[in-house]
From TrEMBL:
<dbReference type="InterPro" id="IPR050641">
    <property type="entry name" value="RIFMO-like"/>
</dbReference>
<dbReference type="InterPro" id="IPR036188">
    <property type="entry name" value="FAD/NAD-bd_sf"/>
</dbReference>
<dbReference type="GO" id="GO:0018659">
    <property type="term" value="F:4-hydroxybenzoate 3-monooxygenase activity"/>
</dbReference>
<protein>
    <submittedName>
        <fullName>4-hydroxybenzoate 3-monooxygenase</fullName>
        <ecNumber>1.14.13.2</ecNumber>
    </submittedName>
</protein>
<feature type="region of interest" description="Disordered">
    <location>
        <begin position="1"/>
        <end position="22"/>
    </location>
</feature>
<keyword id="KW-0560">Oxidoreductase</keyword>
<feature type="domain" description="FAD-binding">
    <location>
        <begin position="28"/>
        <end position="362"/>
    </location>
</feature>
<feature type="compositionally biased region" description="Polar residues">
    <location>
        <begin position="1"/>
        <end position="18"/>
    </location>
</feature>
<keyword id="KW-0274">FAD</keyword>
<dbReference type="GO" id="GO:0071949">
    <property type="term" value="F:FAD binding"/>
</dbReference>
<keyword id="KW-0285">Flavoprotein</keyword>
<dbReference type="Pfam" id="PF01494">
    <property type="entry name" value="FAD_binding_3"/>
</dbReference>
<keyword id="KW-0503">Monooxygenase</keyword>
<dbReference type="InterPro" id="IPR002938">
    <property type="entry name" value="FAD-bd"/>
</dbReference>
Length: 411
């Protein structure tokens, strides 16, 4: 997306569009965004930069969304988008910049120097900090927390969202609706049946993620696969570790802290120093599933981020795709409000889907490469080893892996 900071004011600005200090009347805005995750907040920030009025409807509280622990690996393309929007300063100051990772298969490991190969690093910066940065940059009256979108209507000329705040319903009329409400939100549900065509893959396992008060055991991420499955060593700053284990579907609640540490030790230790235990302050369980809508647009409703597609977390693409969708849609909306040029809006669906499929492809590859999946046989173990060896030994395969890992392959 070209920098919106230098954009001139839009020609088609609506007059008299009031903010939302009170919730007791029918309101109007130009763009109504459902969901204050990274996707929705990025569009909101971009709209503010170009003088288009937007409002964000968020079902949860501000405190909840600002503290929700999820992703942490930020691609350089995502950083550039956030920085162009004027919200990259803290990230660039505080994030750890990574130029390599360790790929470990049983007791063999190899470093992938993706920074040298591609000329681009990745950044470790928690998703909830991106959310905080975006919220801090916004007009607080334009994000309605504790307010759930319950109905989405879209015609060919206008659109509206009905919301519920503390049991009171009111309607927000708008030109466009941005469905950024994640995998279980109202916007995906509101699509007519004939527009719900989608593609799915369930890998049948979960990730159990923990945040622990212990210094990381290495400076870089370690992706490890052993006969007992996958483990990932990651970090949040110098004193916290973010660690993940592949676990059987639905089994996360039964894992005691002691069992988690033992298993991390077993799966991560061959190539790394022994893991240091610490208090576990947060646990998350994520199903390894992929979902993609055939078409993330219906009339004046545009779906972005997890609302349009979910990827298994194996390649850390969900957050990055969400911000990328948001930037692509924001650019199309900018062209519409600037010049009534609707080519960008018409092309949004196919551009977003094309990029998301590339992320799905790499995420599927990382899932196969690093996990022992239900039903796997020795054949799968052998092909996994062959694939691992090919990435490590062959410069073309290594380059391809690195391009996908840092996100260059989707540009
Ligand atoms: C539990 C979980 C753990 C994850 N862990 C990782 C990880 O460890 N590593 C990784 O790389 N990726 C992870 N991901 C993926 C990554 O975090 C997502 O891809 C990313 O959050 C997508 O951003 P988004 O803005 O599209 O959606 P979200 O961040 O999900 O935001 C959607 C927002 O919409 C709100 N909402 C939903 N319904 C409504 C409604 N009806 N009305 C109003 N608001 C509504 C929600 O409260 C939420 O704030 C995880 C995802 C999940 C769900």
């Amino acid at each position: 997306m070209p920098s919106t900071r230098s954009s001139s004011a839009p020609k088609k600005q609506q007059s008299g569009t009031s903010p939302f200090p009170r919730l007791d009347a029918e309101r109007k805005t130009q763009v109504c965004i459902i969901g204050a995750g990274p996707a929705g907040l990025t569009v909101h920030q971009a709209m503010a930069q170009i003088g288009v009025t937007s409002v964000v409807i968020e079902a949860r509280s501000r405190q909840y969304v600002q503290n929700r622990v999820r992703a942490g690996l930020v691609e350089p393309g995502t950083v550039r988008i956030l920085d162009d929007l004027g919200v990259g300063q803290k990230l660039l100051r505080d994030a750890a910049c990574h130029k390599g990772l360790l790929l470990q298969l049983d007791d063999t490991s190899a470093r992938v120097p993706f920074g040298d190969i591609t000329g681009e690093p990745v950044y470790m910066y928690p998703q909830q900090h991106i959310v905080r940065d975006l919220i801090s940059a916004s007009d607080p009256q334009r994000i309605l927390f504790d307010t759930e979108a319950v109905n989405v209507e879209t015609g060919s000329l206008d659109a509206a969202v009905t919301v519920n705040h503390a049991g009171r319903h009111f309607r927000v009329k708008c030109d466009f609706i941005v469905g950024a409400d994640g995998a279980h939100g109202a916007s995906r549900r509101s699509l007519p049946d004939e527009r719900k065509k989608s593609y799915e893959r369930d890998y049948g396992i979960d990730w159990l993620g923990i945040l622990a008060e212990t210094a990381p055991l290495a400076d870089e991420l370690i992706y490890s696969c052993s006969a007992r499955g996958f483990a990932l060593h990651s970090m949040r700053g110098e004193s916290q570790s973010r660690l993940y284990l592949q676990v059987p579907r639905g089994s996360s609640p039964s894992w005691t802290d002691d069992r988690i540490w033992q298993e991390l030790d077993y799966r991560l230790s061959p190539g790394a120093a022994r893991i240091r235990r610490g208090d576990i302050t947060e646990r998350t369980a994520v199903k390894l599933k992929a979902f993609q809508l055939e078409n993330p647009q219906y009339r004046r409703l545009f779906l972005i981020g997890d609302a349009a597609h979910t990827v298994p977390p194996s390649a850390a693409k969900g957050l990055n795709l969400a911000v990328e969708d948001a930037a692509c849609l924001a650019q199309a909306l900018w062209a519409w409000y600037q010049d009534h040029e609707r080519g960008g809006l018409d092309r949004y669906a196919s551009k977003a889907a094309q990029r998301a499929w590339l992320a799905q492809m790499f995420s599927a590859e990382m899932t196969r490469l690093l996990h022992v999946l239900p039903g796997d046989t020795q054949f799968d173990t052998k092909t996994r080893t062959a694939r691992w060896q090919r990435i490590v030994d062959n410069p073309i395969a290594l380059r391809d892996f690195a391009d996908h890992y840092v996100g260059i392959a989707r540009r």
